[in-house]
Amino acid sequence: MSKTLSLLTASVLLFVGASGIAQAQNLRIRPLKTIYVDAKGSAMRIPQGVTYDGVSQLVVSDTGNRRLLVFSLTDDAAVPTFEMRLREVTYPTRVKFEPSGTILVLDGKSHRIARVTTGGEFQGYVELASDGGQDPVIKSFDVDSEGNLWVLDVANGRIVVVGPDGDSSRTIATPAEARFLSDLTVSSSGAVFVVDSVGRRVFVARKGDPAASALGDGLEEDVEFPTCIVVDSASGVLFIADQYGGGIVVLGQDGSFHGRQSSMGWKKGYLRYPSDLSAAGGYLFVADRENNRVQWFEVVQ
Amino acid sequence: MSTRLQVALLIVIAAAFATAAAAEDPFRLKPGAKGKLCLECHLTVQEEMEMPFVHTPVAAGECSDCHNPHASSHGQLLATDIGGICMTCHEDLVAEDTVSAHQAVVEGNCVTCHSPHASANENGLAEAGNALCLSCHEDLAAKLASNRFDHSPVEDSCLSCHDPHGSSKAEFLLTKEMGELCGDCHDTGQASFVDRHMGYSVAGSRCSSCHDPHGSDTSGIMLAQVHKPLTNKMCNQCHLDPTAPNALELKAKGMDLCRTCHMEVINETMSRDRIHWPLADEAACLNCHSPHASDEGALLLASTKPLCGSCHPDTIARQEASLSKHAPIDEGNCSACHAPHASDNTFLMQTADVNDACGSCHDWEGHSTHPIGTEVVDQRNMNLSVDCLSCHRSHGSPYKAFSNYDPSGDLCVECHQQIYR
User: Fold this and answer.
1) Residue among B355, B312, B319 nearest B337 (CA)
2) DSSP character for A136?
3) Would you say B335 and B304 are in contact if contact means Cβ atoms under 8 Å apart?
4) What secondary structure letter does DSSP report for A179?
């Protein structure tokens, strides 16, 4: 009896696993809305960062206008609610929510991360020790569900994990074979994925790994110059923005290739030099930089 | 032994001999006809056989080792393609763990260097000595002819340093790692050698970061452009003192080291909104510039097109595949449009306005009457105005004049859908 039960369980698990893979392979993104302007109707200019809290708030780094824009999301619209111009952040690029609801924004000019409230109050910079190396130069960062900050410091070839208390808890060496790392993302299981723009590949450090190693065989055939990576908390897949190729590549967390979405263009649903991605709640938001807009996609299985 | 058994044994032996004979002579030539038969018609080969060095199969009259006497899908009635035919006997020519291989070998163009039948030169080489190598490496030939200071091993033979087929030890077909190779002739422990290198132990270093192994116009066969501290014999501006245990270690890391002298350039760079990211990583300026010497201006590691293309191969490939060519890219003049260090504009453009950038070479106001400029809204995207990139992709496209879409239809219809029929 127990043998039969074990066989049944194994079969069910196999079926579930296979279904999951099939779903990921059938995953598509469908354009829903395009966000062009702030509350006063002023156009965005080269937006380079976007983040969605998975519930109702969307923040855009409107980089060319040197400001952050906050939007409230309803079922069918993104309503601009607030504009932040920060003296301390003159060139906002990457932007993320912390679990507490505060916003972290990377200044592309000073290469420092600032913490601000949704009301626009500057709360200070995230301090990163140089550990005897050069002054840190932050290229990108991500925040996990426990509030740990994962920082990509290109000047010292490392990923630093900073806890919610502000102390560095872990340092991961970036791989020697990496050509130039542009972005990272952290999964719910604590794996960090890093994208190499020049080497056209992804590296991964799973929980407890001291260093990152190559994920899969590389993306030379699938991308031109990938600059952004994000793990979709809903489907578990990785979305990678191919900036020069104008598209989004979908990978499994095991490195399996699940397709390429969108292409270079000006019309709704098309992309020109996508610069940042945010995926949560069944949606994917793309900072469509050279189209001066943010595109809102639905992730469809 | 019974008669039946003996007959059976004889049949087996005869069959074995017949198989062996067929394998040896698949074309079943008449006795004594091997080679000789071919030479009755191919008189030039007969003349070649008078030369001092004859290819072994030719001398043995085994023409059919390489040629099929009846028919072939390959030129010269070769049994397989020309590279493959040589490799049937010379299969160990390039080691499996090769670090660098000669392009002619990789492409199977053995006859570029070797005469397949016979030659006046050893190893069947088409020409003797360096003349053979220089017949392809023409730039090097010109350089060797004009050098003021020669490197004597080059005069002796290219094979002093290079393996003509491939090397499992080093790049550029070098027979050994560069430091070790140079050390075979240059005693790095000799007082005069140490003295000329300012007291630093450079054994095992990459000598070609300062010296041109093929000779140069500068004493010490230095590369054409030399970093000023090196010219001034001030190595310790960047490296630790020569008496230090790790003397070649740098005094500072990344951009901080270069900043000590090039403060103005770096401050200007860092004052911009966008930097060229390699500047910020661990190698920093050395991603593109040599710290010692170079044959390129601004001590660049290579000429601009391959240098930029080493990180942006997609951009170069787009241009290569493009129907129309954009002259600055073809000429490797990337900085005609892009600032190499930093800029306030995306793509590190030299100018903020795309139309201004294109207009610096193209009289676009004269080439079309299409409305263009900041006042003209792009029909496809309310946040964009019509500029040159609305219709053209500057690095190339599959269409004429690097149009984004087919100019005979899709390009116009992208915006003017009302005229589509």
Assistant:
1) B355
2) P
3) yes
4) S
Domain A23-300 has CATH 2.120.10.30: yes
d(CA B284, CA B95): 36
Nearest to B311 among A134, A135, A180 (CB): A180
Among B327, B328, B326, B329, which residue's Cα sits nearest to residue B316? B329
Contact indicator for A44, A37 with CB cutoff of 8 Å: yes
Q: Please check whether residue A146 is in contact with residue A164, taking contact to mean a CB–CB distance below 8 angstroms.
A: yes
Contacts made by residues B108-112, CB under 8 angstroms, sequence distance 24+: B108/B81, B108/B82, B108/B83, B108/B84, B109/B82, B109/B83, B110/B82, B110/B83, B110/B86, B111/B82, B112/B136
Which residues of chain A lie closer than 8 angstroms to B311, CB-CB?
179-180, 198
What ipTM does this complex have? 0.90
Supply φ then ψ for residue B206, to 5 degrees. -85, 95
- Check CB contact under 8 Å for A225 and B281: no
| Upper half-sphere CA count for residue A32 (Cβ side, 13 Å) | 18
The answer to whether the CB atoms of A180 and B277 lie below 8 A apart is: yes
Q: For residue B215, what are the contacts with CB-CB under 8 A and spacing of at least 6? A: B143, B144, B147, B149, B150, B151, B154, B221
Interface test with A, best of B250, B277, B288, B379 (most A CBs within 10 A): B277
Burial class (CB in 10 A: 0-12, 13-18, 19+), A177: exposed
B contacts of A46 (beta carbons < 8 Å): 346
**Residues written for chain A:** 301
d(CA B210, CA B290): 9
SS3 A258: strand
Encoded amino acid at B38, one letter: C
First-to-last alpha carbon distance for chain B, in angstroms, is 96
Distance, CA of A285 to CA of A269 (rounded, Å): 11
pLDDT digits (tens, 9 = 90+) for B310-354: 999 999 999 999 999 999 998 999 999 999 999 999 999 999 999
For A293, which of B254, B255, B383 is closest by C-beta distance? Answer: B383
Contact A73, A56 (CB under 8 A): yes
Q: Cα distance from A286 to chain B (closest Cα, Å)?
A: 16
Q: Amino acid identity, residue B177?
A: E
- At residue B365, the pLDDT reads 66
Residue A89's closest chain B neighbor by CA?
Answer: B273
What are the domain boundaries of chain B?
24-126, 129-222, 313-419
- Return the higher-pLDDT residue of A46 and A133: A46
Helix (H) or strand (E) holding B354: helix B354-359
Q: Residue holding tokens 């380079």?
A: A48
Could you tell me which residues of chain A have a Cβ less than 8 Å from any Cβ in chain B? 36-37, 43-46, 91, 108-109, 111, 133-135, 137, 139, 154-157, 179-180, 182, 198, 224-225, 244-245, 265-267, 273, 289-293
Cβ within 8 Å, pair A134-B381: no
Please report residues of A whose CB lies closer than 8 A to that of B277.
139, 154, 180, 182
**pLDDT surpasses 90 at B199:** yes
Please tell me the least confidently modeled range out of A17-26, A234-243, B339-348. Answer: A17-26
Do B311 and A179 make contact, defined as CB atoms within 8 angstroms?
yes
The whole-angstrom separation of Cα B344 and Cα A274 is 18
Closest chain B C-alpha to A20 CA, distance in angstroms: 34
Q: What is the DSSP letter of B320?
A: H
Q: Is B281 on the interface with A (CB under 8 A)?
A: yes
Ramachandran angles phi, psi of B384, nearest 5°? -125, 145
| Pairwise CB contact (< 8 Å): B281 & A180 | yes
Question: Strand A201-205 relative to strand A238-242: parallel, antiparallel, unpaired?
Answer: unpaired
Q: Where do the domains of chain A lie?
A: 23-300
The label of the residue with tokens 């299969």 reads B91
